[in-house]
Design goal:
23 strands, 7 helices, seven-stranded antiparallel beta sheet, 29% strand, globular, alpha+beta
Length: 401
């Protein structure tokens, strides 16, 4: 991942942070001229719809939900006023209604809500050509972060993927509109699922991916190995059939025994160093997502500059006589050029992409190809140099605690 200014227009600003007066309308030309604003649908709005049908849970605390809803709507209204003040053309769409048709002619997407809204918007930016900017519409206050024995649940989105919050977006978004701001290239996971009669490439995964049985109490059975191209050797029998000299320079593809060769996209691959796995599933994460579920499951927090992927088998059930190689195979890294292969051996399975909203169903016999070849996402991010004292920023990865 690299950080770079979006334009040379304001490189001189590196010596001294610009003030809001530097971005008054008419003083500079806009770098982004057509925006799509993706707006989160709050829990208050979702539960209100259920209440109309008499299906809302009885234990809901409506005043608290309404307070969060009002804070979010105030942020949305402030953002719209900001864009109008800078004469920016924009359209708005609810997160649940977002479709690819909304991206036509857009040169910047702004996601207003939290990390979930950023991730949802990122799934539609699978080519990596349109930048994305996240705004945390309802950040926790410093007082709430200091509470050690909470009498109430005030948890909100961490905003780890958001460049700014409702408290500082006026300066931050203005900087981006006029060509400043720090733009990062975030590595993503590319996943292809091959079934009996189809081959499906899933949307790129920005944070992490869980492959598991839909029931948390059921065992996830799969065979895991590494994909390599079949080796070519000089077989010594290639010729033209005329009885002349044998052409030893003609390579012949040597395939291993039956059952270890597969194809993806018409390309043949050998599967090597494979093991049978009984577990609760497997996490795969990018460096961006390594400080979230991966770290909580026992993985390591990766450097944000890393393009590697990390995988971790959950609750790996091993026999007492399992070798060291088998025990260590459940956690590791995929570097550039590496490809992980899974053969799903359970009756039911599911791939969860960046949370529970985006899923792909698996059936017995499906094969999964995993690598880091997905187009990177262009994501505006917090200036970590100036935010080093921010309690939301992790001291190693730069992501939220």
């Amino acid at each position: 991942m690299s950080l770079r200014p979006t334009s040379r227009l304001l490189q001189a600003a590196a010596a001294a942070a610009p003030t809001s007066t530097s971005y008054l309308p008419g003083h500079l030309s806009l770098h982004f001229k057509k925006l799509l604003v993706v707006i989160k649908q709050t829990a208050y709005e979702e539960y209100s719809q259920l209440r109309l049908r008499g299906q809302a849970p009885k234990a809901l605390r409506w005043k608290r939900l309404e307070s969060r809803y009002k804070a979010h709507k105030q942020c949305v209204n402030d953002l719209i006023a900001l864009l109008r003040r800078h004469n920016v053309e924009f359209t708005t769409v609810n997160r649940v209604e977002l479709d690819r048709q909304h991206l036509r002619g857009v040169d910047l997407v702004v996601a207003v809500g939290g990390d979930g809204t950023v991730l949802s918007a990122a799934h539609f930016l699978d080519n990596g050509t349109i930048p994305l900017l996240g705004v945390n519409s309802d950040p926790s206050s410093p007082d709430e972060l200091k509470v050690t024995q909470k009498q109430s649940d005030e948890r909100r989105s961490h905003g780890a993927l958001c460049m700014c919050t409702s408290l500082d977006m006026h300066e931050g978004i203005a900087r981006v509109l006029y060509g400043d701001g720090m733009l990062s290239r975030r590595n993503r996971i590319q996943t292809t699922v091959k079934s009996t009669f189809s081959e499906t490439r899933l949307v790129p995964t920005l944070n992490d991916m869980l492959i598991a049985n839909p029931s948390p109490a059921a065992v996830s059975r799969f065979r895991m190995g590494w994909m390599t191209e079949p080796r070519a050797e000089n077989s010594g029998i290639a010729g033209d059939g005329s009885g002349g000299d044998v052409n030893l320079e003609t390579p012949a593809i040597v395939h291993p025994t039956y059952g270890t060769v597969t194809r993806f996209g018409g390309q043949a691959y050998d599967i090597v160093r494979s093991i049978n796995v009984w577990s609760s599933g497997m996490w795969v994460s990018t460096s961006t997502g390594s400080s979230a579920a991966m770290a909580a499951a026992g993985g390591i927090i990766m450097d944000l500059n890393s393009t590697d992927l990390q995988f971790l088998v959950r609750e790996h059930m091993l026999e007492s006589n399992s070798g060291v190689e088998c025990k260590e195979a459940g956690h590791g890294m995929l570097s550039d050029g590496d490809q992980l292969h899974l053969r799903w051996n359970s009756q039911h399975g599911m791939i969860y992409i960046d949370g529970a909203h985006m899923t792909h169903e698996l059936t017995l016999g499906d094969e999964i190809q995993i690598n880091n070849k997905a187009p990177p996402l262009q994501l505006f991010m917090r200036d970590f140099v100036n935010a080093k004292n921010d309690p939301h920023v992790h001291p190693i990865s730069g992501l939220s605690r």
